[in-house]
Amino acid sequence: MGEINVVPYIDVMLVLLIIFMVTAPMLSQGVKVDLPKAAAEPLPADQDPLVLSIDVEGRMFLNIGDPKSALDPDRILELASAVLRREPERPVLVKADRTVQYGRVVEGMALLQQAGAQKVGFATESPASPAARKSGTR
């Protein structure tokens, strides 16, 4: 028989597809927040940023350690300082819900600056195109 049996290869491919479909949602960083919309360029993908997330209730989270547990300001300062001492050029982002008070966002930025962040960016969503807004899709 001179034919190649591709059935085992298809089985392996389907198993890998299922694994990637299950693990892909777990790769998102931080907590779920409703980001403000703004036109901005994406960050280069060469380095994972340090992300400070602020949810609707004003609780703060870092994407280091346990990203699902809220941290107090002292702990955020401690963790961010340790990361930025090891990697001073690491990008730093604030990912805050659009309904969070401005003062709470400024508190988070001040903590990151005290930890040694030279530049702090904001995570936003891209606004929908005018044609998509008219049709109601995003």
The ordered H/E elements are HEEHEHEH
How many beta-strand elements? 4
Shape: elongated
Spatial arrangement of strands, main beta sheet: 2-1-3-4
Q: What average pLDDT do the residues reach? A: 80
First-last Cα distance: 53 Å
Low-confidence stretches: 129-138
What helical percentage do the residues reach? Answer: 25-40%
Beta strand %: 5-15%
- Structural class of the secondary structure composition? alpha/beta
Task: Describe what you observe in this structure.
The structure is a single chain. With 138 residues, this protein is an alpha/beta fold. The protein contains 4 helices and 4 strands; from the N terminus they run H-E-E-H-E-H-E-H. The chain has helices at residues 7-23, 73-86, 102-115, 130-135, and strands spanning 50-54, 60-62, 92-96, 121-122. Strands 2-1-3-4 form a 4-stranded mixed sheet, covered by helices on one side. Helix 2 crosses helix 3. It starts with 6 loop residues before the first helix and ends with a helix. Mean pLDDT is 80; it is low at 129-138.
Q: Quick gist of this model?
A:
The chain is α/β, with parallel strands linked by helices and 138 residues long. The chain is 37% helix and 11% strand.
